[in-house]
Every structure is written in structure tokens, then in C-alpha cells.
């Protein structure tokens, strides 16, 4: 028989049981409860930091462990004389029961009780709690789950959580917008050989792939997962749940489309047969996005043919994605042709619509809405839609179409039809090209049931409103909003925000506030875009106080500020010459767990620092920006070059030029983000080099300008050279030794003088190149 632990003597002397044998049997039973095949734990090995006084107070019913029974020491209940290990076991049991009954808040409180006494619950309890908190998905529940994970990592006890709980936390974090945090969890699982199922890690790849700043992280994760399956013989059975499927390939292809990496996408497509994965409709829809992003027009036109070869049928999203791709590339003729190909309408409907247009034209003076539309329709609404689908146009299209297009129409034309989204996308194309009249024509035709299966919705009307706002026709835009009310088409928050942006852009804040009042009457609450628009409008109107007030109202209303909210406010403080407040807003943005400062925010911060001539701090901020894995933009470099030039830090400007030159010559997919310099940046660099006397570098930058078809202002540099260096190298008393030493610099000066057309060693008088 095992002997009771030495500390049990204290418990025996203080208990109120009448029989010594009964007390011994109970003690032996408790000892056996801690003995498992894998671990033996006795009372003496429990890590309970309890003093003798605490044990006594526990027995008489106090709450040193937070587990008071509510009875005094005079009670005859056995619970009043329970030992500490019994009380701890009771807490763990309560926590497990709460988890089984899905009382997550109660389980969380029990966990805090145990942690207050330095006691860790079982692996089952912790895993279940994290899983349930993740399943809830609310900010507070996710914060609790993340706190548990953080505490376990600090204690090096991360294996207290199983793979299911970690996977659920990663998935929930990704859905909540914390994709980078989810990525860290997945990498932690891989380090622990807890292989995340493909459903979890592909969801994180999908979230990361939607943002250009996170796209490379998505590709890295996909590559790391594929490395586990590099050698098929070494693949463990537990890894099979992690094997990439069609959804995973679609997610990483979408990341390539976001970044415009055509070669990388082709490599990934080549991996699909190796994993036994076949392309589906979504795969081709993502490829359409990629082709549009990389301006591969020929590949776009061949999508239907490749889908037919692969035995994959297109869906409505395929048709709409293709129309959107053509519109995005500015090829409205190709978009119209595609819509025509899948649009079917009996000729009698065309004739009926023609007569209806004639009738509406003769009565246009009595129909206020048509008159208002016609004011901006360029008098073409009666003919635009009819000429698209006239018999002559259909015969012309039939002659010009290739066999592949005809086959696609015959095979899928019976179930693919242009819908309201298709027509609305075409309308957006007309708006982008400035063909506002054509956009209004589409709206009129849809209202008059040119296609009986399609009626304009709130998106269609919103597109028409955007067309008016684009031309600053705010009265006409508001009339379309009234038309929506008459037709009982509810305007949404996007509709109001577009109108609001038009008023704020024209600095008509009085009408902007009136529109806000109309929104509230319609039961539509302002969102973050609404507040951002108002803040920007106030800044443009010079009312920074009102801008700050709207920012405070947004936060008090429980609306989380976005990146635009912070950067807009930073711009306001920067324009008013308050760099300290700019830095404070930026720090607050960094402290916000939902925010990740983007390139715009960093640019505003760096600009405010440069304007205050603190170039050492600007250089430090520039370094931190790159450490945050953000690529400096042309605006970033321009601000820094100007700042270094003002401070006379010519060498720092040259260092920037080396970086700019390297990125200018980089190719997509080379590992270095390509940069397309503009005239302002290159002109600043040439100006800086000329003032500093670096003529060889100035000529390098001039060559870069010529490569990018940017015209340099030679007159400006000629005048600058005359003002600054009219006596340079003109002394007749310079020794031959000094001449030889500065020969390279002299050649650069002569070359520069040759370029601007000043007298040089090649020409002895002024000349015009």
C-alpha cells in the first residue's frame, strides 16, 4: 500500500470525520485519482502555493480559491471540509461542464479563477474554450482566445492547445480581417507538426491574396505547404488533410491576379496535375481577372475556347467577369460584342421598343424624368440600344465571328443571358470613357423594358448618378435619386455616398449636410465612407475643426475608423503645419489592432516630417516603412528627394537614386517591385544633382527620362548651370596634375554642357540640339 503523503497529516488532524479508517480510505482514493498510465500525481507533487493558514481558511468556508460553499465552519456538510485539491478539481469540473453546455462566458470565468491561483486547466478544457471563443467570432471573444494563446506561448506550453482549436482560431481571425495574425498561427502549427487542414490554410491564402500588400505572403504560405509534398514517399498520412485542392489553387491564383504575376500563375497552374487537381469554373473566373490585370487581351478572347477544351461550363459570373475585364481595359466594343453574342430578343420586341421610343419622344415634354435624363443623353437614347441588336448588326456580327465564338454561343447561349449586372457594368464603362449619354441610354432602355427579363436596380441607378457626379451635374444626379423614389427602388448607402462625394468635392457643404439629413429620414445611417467623405470635404473647405469633429462623432457612434479616416485626418493636420498631431494620429493608427498603415499613411507621415526639416527622422520613418514590407511609391521618393535637397544632403539623394534606378529596371516577378517614375520625381533628381555638381549622375537620370519618354526642361537646367557654374573649370592657371586628377569630372561637365546646348569642348559657341 502506498503511504499517504507527509502533508496529509495536517489535513487529517484538522478534518471532522469520526473514523480514522474512513479518512485513510478517502485519502487513498484521492491519490489513485491523480494516477494515470502516463502521469502519476500525488498531493505532495501538486504545485499549490498554499500556506497552512490558507488551508485552514479554505476548510472553514472562505474564498481563498474563489470556490466558497457559502457555509460556515459550523456546517456539517462535507463540502465545508473539502481539501484544496478537491476544490480545484471542482473548478475544473465546472469549467468542463460549462464548455459542454456551451456556456463559454462561465468557462472563461472559471479559467480566470484557476489562473489567479497559478493553476493550468487540462488540455481538453483549454482547447475547447479556444474553439468556442473562435466559433463566436466576436471581437471580444477573439481577443480572449488570442490572450490564451499568447499566455501559453510565453509559458512555452503551446501544446496545451490541439490542432482543431488552433485551426479554428486561425480561421476566425482571418474572417475578422486579421489575416496576418492567422498566418502566424498556421506557421506555428507547422512548427509543431500540427498540419492545418486545407480548408483553413487556403482560407488564409484567400484573405491575404485580396490585398496587394499581403499577396506575397499568400504565395509564400502556398509554397511552404507544397514543400511538404515535394517527395511523395515522405508524405505522412496525417498530412493528407493539408494537401492543396481546387479551392486552394484558386485562392493562390487570385493572389497572383491581385499582384499581376502572370509567370507565377502559369507555374502554379502547372502544379495542378501533380496534385490531381482539376480546374473548375471559379478557376477560369480568376484567370479572367489575371488576364485583365496583365492586359492579356488575346487570352481573354480565348477563355471560352479553353473552358470548352477543359470540359468546364461557364456561369453567369464568367460572362459578367469578361464584360468587366473588357470594360476595365477600355475596350467597350469587345464588351458590347460579348453582350450581343449571348443576348436573344425576338425581332418583334425590337420593333415594339422602337415604336415605344418614338412615342416617348413625342411626349417628352410632359414626362419630367425623361426630360431631365435627356438633358445629358446627347439625344441618342432612342437609337443607341436599337442599333446594337438590329438585324443588320446581327448579320455583321455573324460574318465577323469565328467558329469558336459561334460554338460557344450554341452550347451555352440557352442558359447564359446578360443580366442587370451585365448592363450596369457596360454603363460603368461608358461613364469611365466620358460617354455619359450612352450610360443614360442604357438606363432608359432598361426602364422601358427593352430586355423584358431585366429591370434597373439600385446599382444601375447608382451608376447613372455616378455619371452625373463625374460631370459635376449635381442637380441631374439628385433628380435620378427622386426617380428612384418614384419607382420605389430603395437607394442604399452607396448611392448616398456618391452624391455626398459630389457635393463635398464641389465644396458645397450646405447641400452635403442636407443630404445627410435626408439619409437619416430614409433610415440610412452614415458609415465610415460617409464620415470619410465629410472629413475630406471639410478639409477642402478649410474647416479642420469640423473635420476633427466628424472624426470624433464617428468613433462615438461606434463606427471603426478606416485607413482613409486616419490618413485624411493626418493630411488635415499636415496641411495646417502640425506635424506633432500627424505623428500622434499615425501612432494611434498603429495601435489600432484592426489597422495596418498603408503606403498613403506612411507618405503623409514622411511628408509632414520633411516639411519640418527633420530629415534624420524622415530617413528613419522611410526605413520603418520598408521594414513593414511596404514598397515606397513615387510620391515617397519625391518627398524625400525634395527634403534632402533642402537640407543639402546630396549624398542621401544619390542613395535614393540608386534604389530608384534598380526598381525602374526591375521586371515583374523578379523579386523586386518595379517602379514607374514620373516627371516630377526625375526632375527633382536632376535638379538636385545639378545643384550638387553631380553631372554624371544628372546625365544618368536624363537617360532614364528619355527611356520613359519624359521630356526634360533643358532651358531650366541651362539657366541653372549658368547661374551656378559659369566659372567652373575656366582658370588658365590650373596645373596639369590637377587637370589630370579632375579629368573625369571635367568630361562629365562638358557632356552636360553639350546636352543643354552651352559652349563646350565639342562646340565653341551656343547651339540648339
The structural class is mainly alpha
Cα-to-Cα separation, first versus last residue:
108 Å
Total beta strand runs: 0
Report strand %: under 5%
Mean pLDDT: 77
Shape: globular
**Main sheet specs:** none
Oligomeric nature of the chains = single chain
* Tally of alpha and pi helices: 42
Note poorly predicted spans.
1-81, 345-350, 360-386, 765-769
Gyration radius over CA: 36 Å
Helix proportion of residues, in percent?
55-70%
Describe this structure in words.
- This is At1g68980-like TPR repeats domain-containing protein.
- It holds the Pfam family PPR.
- Residues 1-17 have a biased composition (Polar residues).
- PPR repeats lie at residues 245-279, 280-314, 419-449, 457-491, 492-526, 527-561, 562-592, 598-632, 633-663.
- Residues 24-36 have a biased composition (Basic and acidic residues).
- There is one protein chain.
- The chain is mainly alpha-helical.
- The chain is 65% helix and 0% strand.
- The chain contains 42 helices and no strands.
- Helix 36 (634-646) runs antiparallel to helix 37 (650-664).
- The longest helix is centred in the first third of the chain and has 17 residues, at 84-100.
- The chain starts with 7 loop residues before the first helix and ends in a 13-residue tail after the last helix.
- Mean pLDDT is 77; it is low at 1-81, 345-350, 360-386 and 765-769.
Amino acid at each position: 500500500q502506498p503511504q499517504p503523503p507527509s502533508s496529509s497529516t495536517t489535513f487529517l488532524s484538522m478534518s471532522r470525520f469520526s473514523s480514522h479508517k474512513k479518512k485513510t480510505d478517502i485519502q487513498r482514493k484521492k491519490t489513485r485519482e491523480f494516477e494515470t498510465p502516463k502521469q502519476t500525481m500525488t498531493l505532495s507533487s501538486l504545485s499549490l502555493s498554499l500556506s497552512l493558514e490558507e488551508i485552514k481558511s479554505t476548510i472553514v468556508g472562505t474564498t481563498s480559491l474563489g470556490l466558497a460553499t457559502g457555509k460556515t465552519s459550523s456546517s456539517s456538510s462535507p463540502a465545508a471540509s473539502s481539501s484544496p485539491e478537491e476544490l480545484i478539481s471542482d473548478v475544473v469540473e465546472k469549467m468542463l461542464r460549462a464548455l459542454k453546455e456551451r456556456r463559454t462566458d462561465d468557462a472563461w470565468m472559471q479559467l480566470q479563477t484557476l489562473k489567479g491561483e497559478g493553476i493550468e486547466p487540462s488540455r481538453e478544457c483549454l482547447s475547447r474554450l479556444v474553439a468556442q471563443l473562435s466559433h463566436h467570432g466576436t471581437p471580444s471573444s477573439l481577443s480572449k482566445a488570442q490572450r490564451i494563446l499568447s499566455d501559453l506561448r510565453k509559458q512555452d506550453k503551446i501544446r496545451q492547445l490541439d490542432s482543431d482549436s488552433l485551426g479554428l482560431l486561425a480561421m476566425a481571425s482571418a474572417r475578422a480581417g486579421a489575416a496576418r495574425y492567422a498566418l502566424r498561427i498556421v506557421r506555428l502549427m507547422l512548427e509543431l507538426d500540427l498540419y492545418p487542414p486545407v480548408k483553413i490554410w487556403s482560407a488564409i491564402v484567400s484573405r491575404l491574396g485580396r490585398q496587394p500588400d499581403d499577396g506575397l505572403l499568400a504565395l509564400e504560405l502556398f509554397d511552404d505547404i507544397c514543400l511538404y509534398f515535394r517527395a511523395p514517399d515522405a508524405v505522412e498520412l496525417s498530412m493528407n488533410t493539408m494537401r492543396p485542392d481546387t479551392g486552394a489553387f484558386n485562392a493562390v491564383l487570385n493572389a497572383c491576379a491581385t499582384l499581376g504575376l502572370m509567370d507565377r500563375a502559369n507555374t502554379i497552374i502547372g502544379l495542378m496535375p501533380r496534385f490531381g487537381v482539376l480546374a473548375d469554373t471559379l478557376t477560369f473566373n480568376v484567370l479572367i481577372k489575371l488576364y485583365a490585370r496583365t492586359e492579356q487581351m488575346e487570352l481573354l478572347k480565348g477563355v471560352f475556347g479553353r473552358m470548352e477544351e477543359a470540359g468546364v461550363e461557364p456561369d453567369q459570373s464568367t460572362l459578367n467577369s469578361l464584360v468587366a475585364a473588357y470594360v476595365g481595359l477600355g475596350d467597350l466594343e469587345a464588351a458590347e460584342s460579348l453582350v450581343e453574342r449571348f443576348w436573344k430578343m425576338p425581332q418583334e420586341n425590337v420593333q415594339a421598343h422602337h415604336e415605344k421610343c418614338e412615342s416617348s419622344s413625342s411626349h417628352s415634354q410632359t414626362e419630367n424624368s425623361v426630360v431631365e435624363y435627356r438633358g445629358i443623353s446627347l439625344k441618342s437614347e432612342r437609337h443607341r440600344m436599337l442599333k446594337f441588336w438590329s438585324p443588320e448588326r446581327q448579320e455583321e456580327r455573324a460574318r465577323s465571328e469565328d467558329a469558336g465564338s459561334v460554338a460557344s454561343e450554341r452550347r451555352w447561349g440557352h442558359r447564359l443571358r446578360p443580366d442587370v449586372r451585365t448592363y450596369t457594368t457596360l454603363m460603368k464603362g461608358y461613364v469611365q470613357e466620358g460617354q455619359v449619354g450612352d450610360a443614360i441610354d442604357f438606363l432608359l432602355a432598361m426602364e422601358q423594358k427593352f430586355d423584358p427579363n431585366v429591370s434597373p436596380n439600385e446599382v444601375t441607378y447608382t451608376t447613372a448618378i455616378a455619371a452625373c457626379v463625374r460631370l459635376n451635374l449635381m442637380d441631374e444626379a439628385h433628380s435620378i435619386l427622386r426617380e428612384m423614389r418614384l419607382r420605389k427602388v430603395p437607394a442604399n448607402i452607396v448611392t448616398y455616398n456618391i452624391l455626398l462625394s459630389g457635393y463635398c468635392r464641389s465644396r458645397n457643404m450646405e447641400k452635403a449636410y442636407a443630404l445627410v439629413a435626408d439619409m437619416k429620414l430614409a433610415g440610412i445611417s452614415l458609415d465610415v465612407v460617409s464620415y470619410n467623405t465629410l472629413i475630406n470635404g471639410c478639409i477642402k473647405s478649410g474647416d479642420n475643426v469640423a473635420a476633427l469633429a466628424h472624426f470624433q462623432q464617428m468613433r462615438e457612434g461606434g463606427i471603426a475608423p478606416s485607413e482613409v479616416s486616419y490618413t485624411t485626418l493626418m493630411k488635415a493636420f499636415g496641411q495646417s503645419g502640425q506635424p506633432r498631431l500627424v505623428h500622434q494620429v499615425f501612432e494611434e493608427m498603429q495601435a489600432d489592432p484592426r489597422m495596418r498603415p498603408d503606403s498613403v499613411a506612411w507618405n503623409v507621415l514622411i511628408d509632414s516630417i520633411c516639411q519640418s526639416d527633420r530629415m534624420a527622422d524622415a530617413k528613419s520613418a522611410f526605413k520603418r516603412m520598408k521594414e513593414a514590407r511596404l514598397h515606397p511609391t513615387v510620391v515617397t521618393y519625391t518627398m524625400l528627394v525634395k527634403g534632402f535637397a533642402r537640407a543639402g544632403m546630396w549624398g542621401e539623394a544619390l542613395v535614393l537614386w540608386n534604389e530608384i534606378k534598380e526598381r525602374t529596371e526591375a521586371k515583374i516577378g523578379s523579386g523586386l517591385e518595379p517602379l514607374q517614375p514620373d516627371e516630377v520625381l526625375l526632375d527633382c533628381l536632376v535638379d538636385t544633382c545639378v545643384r550638387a555638381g553631380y553631372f554624371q549622375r544628372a546625365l544618368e537620370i536624363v537617360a532614364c527620362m528619355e527611356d520613359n519618354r519624359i521630356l526634360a526642361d533643358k532651358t531650366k537646367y541651362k539657366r541653372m548651370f549658368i547661374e551656378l557654374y559659369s566659372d567652373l573649370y575656366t582658370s588658365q592657371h590650373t596645373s596639369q596634375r590637377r587637370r589630370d586628377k579632375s579629368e573625369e569630372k571635367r568630361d562629365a561637365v562638358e557632356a552636360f554642357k553639350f546636352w543643354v546646348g552651352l559652349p563646350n569642348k565639342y562646340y565653341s559657341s551656343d547651339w540648339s540640339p
